[in-house]
Amino acid sequence: MRLPEVSPVDPGWLEAAWARHDQLTKPPRALAYLEELGVRLAAIRRSLRPELGAGAVVVCAADHGVAAEGVSAYPAEVTGQMVLNFLRGGAAVNQIAQAAGAEVYVLDVGVRAELPAHERLIAAKVRPGSGNLRLEPAMTRAQAEQALEAGMEAARRALREGATLLAAGDMGIGNTTAAAALTAAFLGLEAAAVTGPGTGVDEARYRHKVRVVGEGLERAARSLGDLARADPLAVLAELGGLEVAAAAGVFLAGAEAGVPLVTDGFPVTAGALAAVRLCPAVREYLFAGHRSAEPGHALQLRALGLRPVLELGLRLGEGTGAVLSFPVLRAAARVLAGMATFEEAGVGQTAAAERG
Ligand SMILES: Cc1cc2ncn([C@H]3O[C@H](COP(=O)(O)O)[C@@H](O)[C@H]3O)c2cc1C
Ligand SMILES: O=C(O)c1cccnc1
Questions:
Q1: What is the atom index within ligand 2 of the atom nearest the CA of 198?
Q2: Which of 32, 99, 144, 261 is most deeply packed, by most CB within 10 A?
Q3: Where is the active site (predicted)?
Q4: Domain tally for the chain?
Q5: Does 267 lie in the same domain as 156?
Q6: To the nearest 10°, the Cα dihedral for 104, 105, 107, 113?
Q7: Residues 80, 76: Cα–Cα separation, whole Å
């Protein structure tokens, strides 16, 4: 498969944007992290007056064979039921997207249930659910490529239809187990360090979930050796998540198009880790929309070197936390683009600033 060509951002834009920020009518760095966001947006958009309009979230959906291990607090049927809920506009992500100015696309790369045709549903089923990662590869390498390509194609559609800010979301009962296995593999961590409660499993189920993740990792290592150094596409195929692979595809195509990209919670950020392993320059286009309550999410963000925009304790997925950050990112761009300089506004700078 052809991986996208992603250009690294030009550090000259970062410098020029910081220089402009320091001329705007505010004490230097008074807008703190918002300024840093604006600077990164300027570099990505190659403009000191970056404009961000409509956003989009591609909610990547698939079932997980590992759900049969009893690793979720909910039954696997909920995946397909929630996809129908997304299409009817009844899910959390729909309401948040309305409030935050984002279009919701649903990408089916592996939901077991048959889904009705719908304008906002991108039907690209690779297989009806992944294999049980504890016992077998989640998918073949060819299927992982197909899921990645489906994510890339969905991102391109969202961009063609006007998105200037792009996020991925996830739906797939059992996917915090797959995300934990992938995160442990990519970062070289133990199962217990990255496994969390997901939808809210009790103590006994949690211990079982850690064992399932550990056994999946051992199984994958038997065929791939050191997972932290193995081919990322092979790791993705072994430990899965068809929708995690699709989320990686959204980030790959979005970075190729030069658009700011926003990560959501634990499963989507596993996809971001995969995308960055496949193509390191993708990292420069990523913003962490929020930090989820899932404990492994902080480890993922640290590995990516991303500070979250929001910390609301969300633990849902669907792209909710990503989309919620869109207004903050738009504001960061507007501040840099639209604020007056001290000179333009005739506002006096401090004596210290005048002395330079
Ligand atoms: C009604 C409902 C709506 C959701 N929306 C996202 N998730 C989230 O929970 C699932 C992951 O957690 P676990 O690994 O514990 O199964 C994913 O589907 C994720 O998107 C939901 C879960 C439920 C039950
Ligand atoms: O971090 C997330 O996005 C998350 C947490 C729990 C369940 N599903 C998703």
A1: 6
A2: 144
A3: 318
A4: 2
A5: yes
A6: 70
A7: 8
- Other C-beta atoms closer than 10 Å to the C-beta of 25 total 15
Co-location of 246 and 111 in the same domain: yes
Ligand 1 in reach of 195 Cβ (< 6 A):
no
pLDDT under 70: residue ranges of the chain: 351-356
Statement to judge: residues 40 and 105 lie in one domain: no
Phi, psi of 305 (to 5 degrees): 70, 35
Same domain as 315, residue 168: yes
The atom number, within ligand 1, closest to the CA of 82 reads 3
What is the number of the ligand 2 atom nearest to the C-alpha of 320? 3
Within a domain: 44: yes
pLDDT for the residue 71? 98
Nearest CA residue ID for atom 5, ligand 2: 315
Q: Which residues line ligand 2 (CB under 6 A)?
A: 176, 198-199, 264-267, 292, 294, 297, 315-317
Specify if 6 maps to a domain: no
Could you give the ipTM of this predicted complex? 0.99
Q: Answer whether 21's CB lies under 8 Å from 308's CB.
A: no
Question: Which pLDDT value is given to residue 356?
Answer: 47
Q: Are residues 204 and 291 in the same domain?
A: yes
Domain annotation covers residue 323: yes
Range of the domain at 136: 55-328
**Which tens digit of pLDDT belongs to each residue from 146-185?**
999 999 999 999 999 999 999 999 999 999 999 999 999 9
26 and 97 in one domain?
no
